[in-house]
Design a protein that fits this description.
This protein has about 260 residues and is an alpha/beta fold. The chain has 2 domains: about 100 residues, Ribosomal protein L30/S12 (60s Ribosomal Protein L30, Chain: A), CATH 3.30.1330.30; about 140 residues, 3-Layer(aba) Sandwich (Alpha/beta knot). It is built from 10 helices and 12 strands. Helix 3 runs parallel beside helix 4 and helix 6 runs parallel beside helix 7. The longest helix is centred in the C-terminal third of the chain and has 16 residues. The radius of gyration is 20 Å and the shape is elongated.
Amino acid sequence: MKWIASRDNPFFKALAKLADSARQRHKTAQTLLDGTHLLAAYLDSGQVPQHVVLNRAASCDAGVAALLDRIAQVPVTQLDDRLFAELSDLKTPTGILALIAIPQTARLPGHFALLLEDIQDPGNLGSILRSAAAAGCDAVFLSPACADAWSPKVLRAAMGGHFALRIHEQQDLPGVAQSFSGALFATSLQAERSLYDCELRGEIAFMVGNEGAGLSGVLRALATHSITIPMPGKVESLNAAAATAVCLFEAVRQRAGGR
């Protein structure tokens, strides 16, 4: 096992750039998975990391050792604890990072899809991706102004959801919407039709707008169905992640045979 204690080490510098820079992640098509849960989810999806990095405590941890046994062919480097802490912003790090290639997936329209426009909060985006994976979505399309889907914060919030989805970043969403052959749903507080009155068992996509501005007029005009989520309580609206989860799992309910 290689040991690195110097901040001037080229490999450490490369990892630090990946941890901090969306541009670097896109340039190299690589990112870092932080923690045992994400690495286990990645391995369970049938993929193998390019490199594993540990701190001192993790090198003696039984759970980490079990993960390493699954990928014995992958190179492992131990970092000085101070250097490792610069790469992980977890309050209680598990002491393991995995360098992976960002999956390059063919752009396919999908049959149960999400179109995400300018979702800028990493926690919201990660929660949406986690819900999409749990609901069985097959494709997610992100506009150029969305948060970086492969950033450490989004990866943590999605809890492995990335590895069950085809994620397409930097997309022309009006073009995606125009080429989609199924029904396009957009939520609106002004809509008269309830989500629960819609047929969601065919080829569908939900379009989700920015946390503050909502969906753009261009995408609203392309929606085939404008719908509202009934809210009998005393709140004005749901946030983007919660509203998306409600829509997705109503579709799941219908697809499972309920109506």
